[in-house]
Structures are given as structure tokens and as C-alpha cells.
Write a structure and sequence with these properties.
Blueprint: H1 4-30, E1 43-46, E2 61-66, E3 72-77, E4 83-88, E5 94-97, E6 111-117, E7 123-128, E8 134-139, E9 145-148, E10 158-163, E11 169-174, E12 180-185, E13 191-194, E14 211-216, E15 222-227, E16 235-240, E17 246-249, E18 261-262, E19 270-271, E20 277-282, E21 288-293, E22 299-302, E23 314-315, E24 324-325, E25 331-336, E26 342-347, E27 353-356, E28 363-369, E29 375-380, E30 386-391
């Protein structure tokens, strides 16, 4: 559990952030605050110590989150085919760790998979036990672990997505029927769970990937999505207020046929401290596009130059796609070209879009952008090995 000092610091930082929201909100919405350039930034490639870089095995290093200070968390696969957690400092120093209870049996493909780090250094993620069941974990800034699962967990287990500055964690889990549901875990360890309005509640074997929360900010605003129960499993996004009110939304132009709509199964939606949201929508031709939704509900849609225009192509991906939005309004994510190659992109607050591909990449997947404009993610080289990268800001 977090120390009292950490809780005290979190409280005061959250209060300070809330106090400056009114001053900065207009500037950030208009794109007049500190912004990033669309010019080429410096890209640093890295591998966690112990990561297996044997060609052809599609193994290696998988960064998943970065905080404002530039600390990166993620996992790496060793030669033992076990996943291990890591933290990388801004200076490139690594700390590796295992969640207690994680199965580290060689050949198991189990282990520890961190997903998010907050500005105090608290980390959340998943670990796989010896039965292949997934549990959530919280790693405090001083390295102490807490394992957790929602009360009615079953099926595959628990999949945290994000931890905010106050230590609240959101994500999804499956119940005993393998139906996906959203959860919120408060810093005191209590849970709130829910599904979207008229969400499908069967399971993946029947085409339903249910409901899930994918982001939460310092004010307790949560975003996520769900597939509906109309038979086509159309996806919709939602905003959940701190008092639990759920509001759904769809981007104009989102399709209403099978596996179309706003968002996608397993996708992570960007959310900043002011309530702006960034994500993807899939049109009637099953092409992905990016969107930015202001706090008052106005939409801007966009496409990365070079994005394909065929089914399964475009700005975003059909499933398990990450979109990240910082407090300046900069967005990073993935686009798929006409040859189905994956590239990263950066969209500045003024709407300029640049490709983000590390040298030698044949597949790029950004996983986060921080408030300083740094981007982290994963890329695959020509030998099929995964590497981490960080793209430094342009100023």
C-alpha cells in the first residue's frame, strides 16, 4: 500500500491541478498553451536488460506507459519466455521486478506485465499465475506490491489500464461467464464495476467483447467503451463522471455495422486533465479515423497522411489500439497504410501530423505521450524482435 506521505502529496498535487484548470482550460482548448512541433524529434531505441533479442521469435521489450518526468514502465520477454516488469529512468537506468505470485516457470509465457505509471511512480498492471489466470497489481513508488481483483472476477481475470495521480485504477475484467466488464478501484481498495447501457454481456466466443474502462484523470473522470447488444456488436464510447453518471457518445460518421462504431475492443482512449478525449472511430467502410472531442462535446476528426483508405486500414486499428492525449492537446497513436504496415503518428495541438517511426522499424506502435511531449512505444525490426523507443520533444 502507498505510504501516508505519498497519499498526502497526491492530495495536494491534485488540489493544485484542479485550481489551475480554470486558468489553463481555454488556452489548451485553443491550442495556445505549450505545444509540440511536427518536426522530427530524436528517437532513442532501447532494450531492457535480459530481453531476448533472438531473431524470429517476436520477443523483446514492450514499453506501455510514461509519466510526466519521463519514467517509462513496461515488460520484456526473456529467453525463458517469461514476461518481466521494468522501469526505465529518463537517464536510461533500468529497474526490473516481478509481481509476487507471478508464474516465472520457463516456457510458460506467464509473468508480469506493467501497463501504467503515474507521476509519483506508482505502477499498475497484470500478472499471470501458474494457472494462466490474470490478476491486477499495484506497485507503490517504494516497490511494495498489492494484488487485486474485483469481487466477481472469473474467466480470464483482471486487466488494469491506467492509474491516475491519486492512485485510482481503471480497467476491465471478466466474470465467471467470461463477459467483459469495466472496473474502478479506489486508493482504499474498494471497487465499482459496471457495463455500458444495453451492452452485450455474452463473451468473446460469441462475438461480444463487452465493456471496459480505459482511462481516468485527476478529477476522477473516466472514459471507456462497450459493444452494444443489437447483434452487430457496434462499439460506443462513454464518459463516466466522478459521481457515477454515464454518458455515451458516437463520433459523426461512425459506422453501425458489424464491429464498427466509436472506439474498438481493447482500445485505449486518450484523456487529459481538462476532459478532452482522443480516440478512433470506424466508418461504414470499416476504415479507421482519429477523433478529438472537446470537454463540451465538439468533435474534430483527422487522418494521418499516408493512412490507407481500405477496410481495416486508416488512422487507428480494428482492436487493441492505443491513443494517448496530453494536456497540451498533442495526440499519438497508430496508423495503417495501404500495405497494412503499422506506423506511429504525432498530431500537434494545431493539427499538424508527423509520422513517428524509429529507424529500422517494420511495425511501430506508440503507447503514450507525456505532458513534456515525449513519446514511448514499441517497434519491430526486420528480424521480428520488439524494441522500446522514446521520442524526445522537439523544443
Amino acid at each position: 500500500m502507498m505510504t501516508s506521505y505519498t497519499r498526502f502529496s497526491q492530495f495536494h498535487l491534485a488540489v493544485r491541478r484542479k485550481a489551475i484548470f480554470g486558468v489553463c482550460l481555454a488556452l489548451c482548448i485553443l491550442g495556445l498553451g505549450h505545444s509540440v512541433s511536427a518536426q522530427e524529434g530524436r528517437i532513442i531505441s532501447f532494450d531492457a536488460p535480459g530481453a531476448d533479442t533472438t531473431p524470429g521469435d517476436y520477443n523483446g521489450t514492450y514499453p506501455s506507459g510514461m509519466n510526466t518526468w519521463g519514467f517509462i514502465t513496461g515488460s520484456y520477454q526473456g529467453a525463458d519466455t517469461v514476461y518481466h516488469g521494468f522501469v526505465r529512468s529518463p537517464g536510461g537506468k533500468f529497474t526490473t521486478f516481478e509481481a509476487p505470485g507471478a508464474d516465472t516457470t520457463a516456457g510458460s509465457y506467464n509473468g508480469t506485465s506493467p501497463i501504467s505509471i503515474n507521476d509519483f511512480g506508482a505502477i499498475t498492471g497484470s500478472y499471470y499465475d501458474a494457472n494462466g489466470f490474470t490478476h491486477g497489481f499495484l506497485r507503490s513508488p517504494d516497490g511494495k506490491f498489492t494484488s487485486f481483483d474485483p469481487p466477481d472476477v472469473g474467466g480470464y481475470g483482471t486487466f488494469p489500464k491506467v492509474i491516475n495521480i491519486e492512485g485510482t485504477i481503471v480497467g476491465n475484467y471478466t466474470d465467471s461467464n467470461y463477459s467483459f466488464r469495466a472496473f474502478l478501484r479506489s486508493p482504499d481498495g474498494t471497487f465499482i464495476t459496471w457495463v455500458g447501457p444495453d451492452a452485450c454481456e455474452t463473451n468473446g466466443s460469441q462475438g461480444c467483447y463487452g465493456s471496459g474502462a480505459s482511462n481516468i484523470n485527476a478529477l476522477g473522470i473516466t472514459v471507456g467503451g462497450y459493444e452494444d447488444n443489437n447483434g452487430n456488436f457496434v462499439h460506443h464510447d462513454f464518459v463516466r463522471s466522478p459521481d457515477g453518471k454515464l454518458k455515451t457518445f458516437d463520433v459523426p460518421g461512425a459506422g453501425t455495422d458489424s464491429y464498427q462504431g466509436t472506439g474498438c475492443p481493447g482500445c485505449s482512449t486518450g484523456l487529459n486533465q481538462f476532459g478532452a478525449i482522443a480516440g478512433i472511430y470506424i466508418d461504414a467502410n470499416s476504415v479507421q479515423h482519429g477523433f478529438l472531442r472537446t470537454p463540451n462535446g465538439k468533435f474534430t476528426t483527422f487522418d494521418a497522411p499516408g493512412a490507407g483508405t481500405g477496410s481495416g486500414q486508416g488512422t487507428g486499428c480494428p482492436s487493441d489500439c492505443s491513443v494517448s492525449l496530453n494536456d497540451s492537446g498533442a495526440i499519438t497513436g497508430t496508423y495503417i497504410d495501404a500495405n497494412f504496415n503499422y506506423h506511429g503518428y504525432l498530431r500537434t495541438p494545431k493539427g499538424k501530423i508527423a509520422t513517428v517511426d524509429p529507424p529500422g522499424s517494420v511495425f511501430t506502435s506508440p503507447s503514450g505521450i507525456n505532458d513534456s511531449g515525449g513519446i514511448t512505444g514499441t517497434y519491430v525490426d526486420a528480424n521480428g524482435v520488439y524494441h522500446g523507443f522514446v521520442r524526445t520533444p522537439d523544443w
